[in-house]
Amino acid sequence: MELWILASFAAALFQSVRFMLQKHLFQGALSASGATFARFVYSAPLAVLCLGVYGGLTGHLPSFPNLTFWSYGFIGGAAQILGTVCTVTLLGRRNFAVGLTFIKTEVLLTVVIGFIVLGETLSTMGAVAILLGVAGLLVLSGPVERGHGPIWRRLLSPSAGLGLLAGGLFGVAGVCARAASLEVASDLAGVRALITLSAITTMQMTGMAIWMQIRDPQEIKRVFCAWRTALWIGLTSMAGTFCWFTAFTLQKAAYVKAVGQVEIVFGILATVLIFRETIRPREWLGIGLVSLSVLALVLWG
C-alpha cells in the first residue's frame, strides 16, 4: 500500500479522536472558539519542538521557505481555523457521525478548489462520484427530527449550511497546505510536512491568541484550565495534521481527502459506542451514499 494512503488513514483516525475530544469540551467547558484554540495552542509548540529536534539530530534543514509558501500557509491556516469553528458548532447540533458526514463534503469541494488553485483534474468517473456525494448530502440535509419539506429548505438548514461551509473551508485548507508543502526544498515528504505543519500551526496559534485576547480573554484561561483534555486535542491534532501534510506532499489533495473519508466509519463507531447516539435510517442512507462517492473517487477518480 502506498505511503500517502497509509498517511491518509492515520490522519483520519487521529482527526476522529480529536473531534470527539472537541465535542466533549464544547458541550462542557469551552465555546467553539475555545475548543478550536485548544487544538493549536497545544500542538504548535510540539510541532516546532519536533522540527528543532530533527534539525539538531541531522544538522540539516531545507532553506527558509519563500513568500509563496507563507502566503499559501496563511490562507490555508485561516481557512482551517474557521472550518474547525464551524465543525465544533455543527457537532454540537447533530450526532457525531452525521456531523462528520456533512463536513466530509470537503472532498467534493476540494476537487473544485484544487482545479482553480493548482489546475488538478479528475476523470469522468470522478465527476459521477461527485454527483453521488451531492445526492447523499441532499438526504442528510433534512431537519434533525423530520425529513419533510422542499429540497431548497433542507439545503438552507443551519446544519447543512455549517457542514458545507466547513467542508469548503477545509477544502481550501487542504489545497493550500499541499501548495505550501510543494514550495519546501526537500525530497523527503516527512520533512516538508513537518516544516509546513510548524509554520502553519504557529501562525494559527498566534492569530487566535490575539483575536481571543481582544474578544474573550477569559476563554483563554478556560482553555488552559481544561488542559487535561485539551492537551490530548493538541497531540492528536499535531499527529493528524502531520499525516495529512505528508499525504498532501505525495498526492493530489482531492484524492487524499477521499481516502480520509474512512473517518465516517470511525464516526459511526463513536456515535454508537461512545456517545450512545442513534443514527436514523435516513441518515444511514445519506452516510452510505457519501461513502460510495468516496469509494468511487478512490477507485476510478
Describe this structure in words.
The structure is a single chain. With 301 residues, this protein is mostly helical. The protein has one domain (3-122, 161-257). It is built from 15 helices and no strands. Helix 10 crosses helix 12 (227-250). The model has no long low-confidence stretch (mean pLDDT 79). The chain crosses the membrane at residues 35-57, 69-91, 111-140, 161-181, 193-214, 226-248, 254-275, 284-300. It holds the Pfam family EamA.
Helices and strands, in order, run as HHHHHHHHHHHHHHH
Low-confidence stretches: none
Q: How many DSSP-defined strands?
A: 0
Query: Largest sheet at a glance?
Result: none
How far the N terminus sits from the C terminus, by CA atoms, comes to 18 Å
Give the number of domains: 1
Alpha plus pi helix count: 15
What is the radius of gyration?
A: 19 Å
What do the pLDDT scores average to?
79
The helicity comes to over 70%
